[in-house]
Amino acid sequence: MKAQDNEISPTAPGATASVRRKAARPLPVEPATPFLPDLCSSQSVFLLVLVAELLALLLTISASSGLQHFNWDKLALISVQVQWIVVFSAIALCRLRFWLGRQSHVRAGCVSYALVLVVTLVLCIAGQWIIYGASGLAFVGDQEFSFDGWLLLNSMVIAAILSGILLRYLYLQQQLRNQQQAEMQSRIQALQSRIRPHFLFNSMNSIASLISTDPNTAERVVEDLSELFRASLAEPTLIPLQRELELCKHYLDIEQLRLGRRLQLDWQIGTYNPQLKIPSLMLQPLVENAIFHGIEPLPKGGIITVKVSQNDKQLSIVISNPYLLVKKNQRNGEQAQRHNRMALDNIRRRLTAHFGTAARLSSSAENGLFTTYIFCPLTL
Question: What is the tens place of the pLDDT at every residue in 299-324?
């Protein structure tokens, strides 16, 4: 074909089904960077309630002129008012979290600050109404309700000072988290970029050998290779396990054409949630190592076994392959082991970057069988 794949119109008569599928895929929308932390999470709500209660205790001690004249009734009133202000402000900021992330920092900061002050003003006025009615004055004929302007001003000044400090702290905390995530994303990209050249050369050789003898199969191999490169060039992220297994099968289909009967596959896929997510292109380097270090050196080839299972706590993936037990070419053997360890360390770092210490990767080599074990937390 003279025209490249991205130059073919999806509506053209000669367009293949795969081209139409590629053209129909929507472009990913880059999410907005959050301006503030997620204040709706259970941990954030707990910390906000705790800080609000400590603030109410501090205000009560200050209003009571010390612990000697501590007033529990006043603590109850101040606590209720402060808690409602904090909770409603957190809900409002949580709703606007990603909208704020799309604004400039100055505008987002001003909107957040003004929003907290508006919530404080409304709830302070409502609080005075509630206290007026609950005290029984509303049922006395000669009593007229009047706002306590000084009390309202005191509340607004306290809210202005404390909300400014707290919002500044939350902003800096989120910016630090954004920076850490950006650095982690860059590190994962650097680790994943080492995977990209590995499967290219063997695939291109297979395609070159098939073009003259079996052009239809060559076209299918090109489509398989394009799927792999699309995943490899995409942003490193978590993808559904089912998608990762499909990419792995695309790669093995290419290698199956090259190795023929020497490569045998044993897929032992148990029951699992197809939406479970793992790092993209995590299995492909493992089966590539299994072929390069295990199947290719063996004259008769061997079987690569891929086991996938899930329990209540984690997802387990086991990949095993035979390897050649020889003491000749010791230098080549040590070099191959070193490359294998580098690939395993690469994947181990990617797992740690995504899941922390909750994910584990280990390997063993016994009686001519090399096995890699991966354990990941359940991530949907």
Answer: 888 999 999 999 878 889 999 999 88
